[in-house]
Amino acid sequence: MTKPRIAVLMDENTSSGGNQYAMGKGYFEAVAAAGGLPFGVPYEHDILPEIIAISDGLLCPGGRFAYSDACYQGDWTSKSPHSDRLAIETKLIKGFLALDKPVLGICAGMQLLGCLHGAKMTPDLLATQQGALPHDESGRIHMVEVAEGSQLRGIVDAIQIQVNTFHREALVSESDEVLVSAKSPDGIIEAIELPKHRFAIGVQWHPEKLLDDKASRLLFSSFVRACAR
């Protein structure tokens, strides 16, 4: 049986000029371990139609870059650097979902997945979300509660799971198209899904860094299985 081909959007080093692609190996290792064939996608508009046509699924990774002002709640705006990634990722997500091909968004990938479907963000959760805990500290681990009846709950088969956390921005609202499927104890949105699609899930944490964890392995294996259909 042919393994599903998973397009993995590249990230870039926005903190030092954006002149290089920069990706953790864990994204590729996680997809491969789950039975998929991962390949990196650069920021080249001309190749996107073919990428969408030949790929079975899309993984959008973490990263730090400026989203459009429309993605933020109220009059908030981004504090992050500009990136060509935004336009590329927007086209990829829309293209894959138009064909109902699976999409997994991680950290920044989750945020854009939500914003493209009516959710809104904060550029700095500690500054805007009263009672929020630090979410951008290396080594920090916290629990999230997974919503009953969500697709994510069915995947991880647990009420609570332990996750890592590496983000300053966060989604602060849902929409008619976006279901919040997990939250941290301080109320920060930690996972979303698009119920109208067979697999369109975003998680705020980094499961590719937690491959010894059962819930992380289950998430990637469910994603790859969905891509094989």
Molecular structure report:
It contains 7 helices and 11 strands. Helix 2 runs parallel beside helix 3 (85-98). The protein is an alpha/beta fold and 229 residues long. Helices cover 28% and strands 21% of the residues. It has a single domain (5-228), classed as Rossmann fold. Strand 3, helix 3 (85-98) and strand 4 form a beta-alpha-beta unit. The protein has a 9-stranded mixed sheet with strand order 2-1-3-4-11-10-9-6-7, sandwiched between helices. A two-stranded antiparallel ribbon has the order 5-8.
Q: What descriptive keywords fit this protein?
A:
229 residues; Rossmann fold
Number of helices: 7
- Tell me the series of helices and strands, N- to C-terminal: EHEHEHEHEHEHEEEEEH
Strand content: 15-25%
CATH-assigned homologous superfamily = Class I glutamine amidotransferase (GATase) domain
Q: What overall form do the CA principal axes indicate? A: globular
For the largest sheet, list the strands in their spatial order: 2-1-3-4-11-10-9-6-7
CATH class: Alpha Beta
N→C terminal distance: 12 Å
Number of folding domains? Answer: 1
**Main β-sheet description:** 9 strands, mixed
Q: Can you tell me the CATH architecture?
A: 3-Layer(aba) Sandwich
CATH topology: Rossmann fold
Counted beta strands? 11
Low-pLDDT regions: none
- What Rg do the Cα atoms give? 16 Å
Q: Mean pLDDT, nearest integer?
A: 93
Structural class: alpha/beta
> Helicity range of the residues?
25-40%
